[in-house]
């Protein structure tokens, strides 16, 4: 494993910045791969570097996903584009109940990017992969000319294996299912916004960016019947619930008064004019479980985050309409739609 | 399947260009996914849209790879960023002897991109996937602000299955292996350069961009013993051979006089000061096979491209050095190194 206390393995006096040739398929790209990427992402996989990597999976039922990350700024309280690129893709696999195993990483670097910045991101990718227990086994590097990118964009694709027989997807949602939320809302979006706008609070608001797979697998292993899962990223809780309600053709009744939002996040939302229901998260999910699985599910979720709670239920009212209704703090009930327009560009 | 004669499914009078909100996780992104991507990439996979897609593979030995595509210009004679993004990743899987099955597609779009351009690329992605017999089963869309990208960047990751017992990789290369080349060199690089520089030739030079998996699988099925394969992209033939020579610790002796280069490509290389050995290709590969497999291999390769030929051999001389020596047209022998510096930025 890489010693992360080491400094950048590319000599910074010689190559202080990324050049176009670092993506050109020649000597400089080879140096970057062999000196920086291979040692950092060294895995137990015996397959040597090649155009594609060969692995033997323990099962043949898999989940597959991809996400690109274009977050601005690259570093923020609680994470950076590297930790986000691992956790985001790991979490998408976890939402199918898969055990994440392997990631690919594709870099699109802008000419002139400080080499030291790339190294910090690479270290974070690997540290986060270690925590999430996934291996980065294949990758690609492209460099675009100055002014045609923005520092670093990262794509990760992931493969996970499914070792149970549950179908965790919107079509498994049933009337009477209880909707659980895994923690407080809005920290990722507000953390990014605070950095961008130079907002200062009494304490720094940190992103909730975190891997969720182990929590999900713990629930499945404990016998929780999981009908559907969705992590709350762009568009926030409101958009995620609307997607599921539409796919499943059901109505979801949510109680806004129980949804945990930290006081500083709530305050920032009021200043910025945001509704926490629409603000992005990177370490939160909703789970749809039948009533007899709620107790076990909540117990496990609360061991990870004690603010996990029941936020609502699936009802038969307005069946097939795909509605989400929210009982607000003043007792009134309103329909909550998907995010309309753009709230926070480049949040992930 | 999509009817590709149809016009763009997003109303162009309403949304002539990509907006930031098309990547925001809300209604516009949903419209783009449901009206454009789902119908175009409709597959036989029964799994509904979710954070990750679940598939059952016929075997558990797989190949996995990723590439990002930042080619400029987006459209060129013989292809575009969409066909390239399918063929490039399919070919990387094929180089491990895998049968490509599934692709992910991640778009990074620049605000202001004409919607019609995106639609043309999406159609090409799907048409090329049909030809290459792979399914695009998961994806992601991000939008960056104007001036922070360059129209369209695409990442594809791919999964293929390996249904044979050959280890097709540099470590299988042996002394005495014959090196075969699957066609003429340099067309992709020169096609791109001609468009960028506004060069005009008597006939248009078209990129060699093409899927290679079926040709490779045909060779394996015919009993050809394939020791190593490498497709010739950035850095060209010279860089690919150097990578293999270094990994395998062998010397490769190449005969430049037999390497097929079309006359117009050779002429363009002379004008531009390029060596065809270093120019990028997108539908060419080298195969390392033992002498008793040469006849069958060449027969199959020539049925696809009659300019396929033997270009050299693996020797024991200078063992462990990773050298590539080339006998030139004037009879002298020289060492050919990896590409140094950057020849053609953003060629793929």
Notes on the structure:
- 2 copies of one chain form a homodimer.
- Chain A is of the alpha+beta class.
- The first copy, chain A, has 2 domains: 20-161, 2-Layer Sandwich (60s Ribosomal Protein L30, Chain: A); 170-335, Phosphoribosyl-aminoimidazole Synthetase, Chain A, domain 2 (Alpha-Beta Complex).
- Chain A is 29% helix and 23% strand.
- The first copy, chain A, is built from 8 helices and 14 strands.
- In chain A, the strands form 3 sheets. Chain A has a 7-stranded mixed beta sheet, with helices on both faces. The first copy, chain A, has a 4-stranded mixed beta sheet with strand order 2-7-5-6, covered by helices on one side. Chain A has a two-stranded antiparallel sheet with strand order 3-4.
- The first copy, chain A, is globular and about 65 Å long.
- The mean pLDDT of chain A is 93.
- At the A-B interface, helix 1, strand 1, strand 2, helix 2 and strand 5 of A face helix 1, strand 1, strand 2, helix 2 and strand 5 of B.
- Strand 2 (61-69) of chain A pairs antiparallel with strand 1 (53-56) of chain B.
User: What does the main sheet of chain A amount to?
Assistant: 7 strands, mixed
- What amount of the residues of chain A lies in strands? 15-25%
Which consecutive residue ranges of chain A, at least 5 long each, have pLDDT under 50? none
What is the count of helical runs of chain A?
8
InterPro entries (chains A, B): HypE, PurM-like_C_dom, PurM-like_C_sf, PurM-like_N, PurM-like_N_sf
Domain PurM-like N-terminal (chains A, B): 50-162
Organism (chains A, B): Aphanothece sacrum FPU1
Domain PurM-like C-terminal (chains A, B): 174-319
């Amino acid at each position: 494993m890489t010693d992360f206390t080491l400094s950048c393995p590319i000599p910074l006096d010689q190559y202080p910045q990324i050049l176009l040739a670092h993506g050109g398929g020649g000597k400089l790209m080879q140096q970057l791969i062999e000196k920086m990427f291979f040692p950092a992402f060294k895995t137990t996989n015996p397959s040597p570097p090649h155009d594609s990597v060969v692995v033997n999976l323990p099962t043949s039922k898999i989940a597959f996903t991809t996400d690109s990350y274009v977050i601005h700024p690259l570093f923020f309280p609680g994470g950076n584009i590297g930790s986000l690129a691992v956790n985001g893709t790991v979490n998408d696999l976890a939402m199918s109940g898969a055990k994440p195993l392997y990631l690919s990483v594709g870099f699109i670097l802008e000419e002139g990017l400080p080499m030291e910045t790339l190294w910090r991101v690479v270290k974070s990718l690997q540290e986060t992969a270690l925590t999430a227990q996934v291996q980065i086994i294949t990758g690609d590097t492209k460099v675009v000319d100055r002014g045609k990118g923005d520092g670093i964009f990262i794509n990760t694709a992931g493969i996970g294996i499914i070792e149970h027989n549950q179908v965790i997807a919107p079509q498994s949602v049933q009337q009477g299912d209880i909707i659980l939320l895994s923690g407080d809302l809005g920290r990722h979006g507000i953390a990014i916004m605070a950095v961008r706008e130079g907002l200062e609070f009494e304490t720094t608001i940190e992103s909730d960016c975190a891997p969720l797979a182990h929590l999900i697998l713990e629930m499945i292993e404990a016998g929780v019947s999981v009908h559907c899962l969705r992590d709350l990223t762009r568009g926030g809780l409101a958009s995620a619930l609307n997607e599921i309600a539409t796919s499943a053709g059901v109505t979801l009744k949510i109680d806004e008064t129980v949804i945990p939002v930290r006081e500083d996040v709530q305050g920032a939302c009021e200043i910025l004019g945001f509704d926490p229901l629409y603000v992005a998260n990177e370490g939160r999910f909703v789970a749809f479980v039948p009533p007899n699985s709620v107790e076990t599910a909540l117990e496990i979720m609360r061991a990870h985050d004690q603010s996990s709670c029941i936020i609502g239920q699936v009802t038969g009212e307005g069946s097939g309409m795909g509605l989400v209704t929210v009982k607000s703090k003043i007792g009134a009930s309103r329909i909550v739609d998907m995010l309309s327009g753009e709230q926070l560009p480049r949040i992930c």
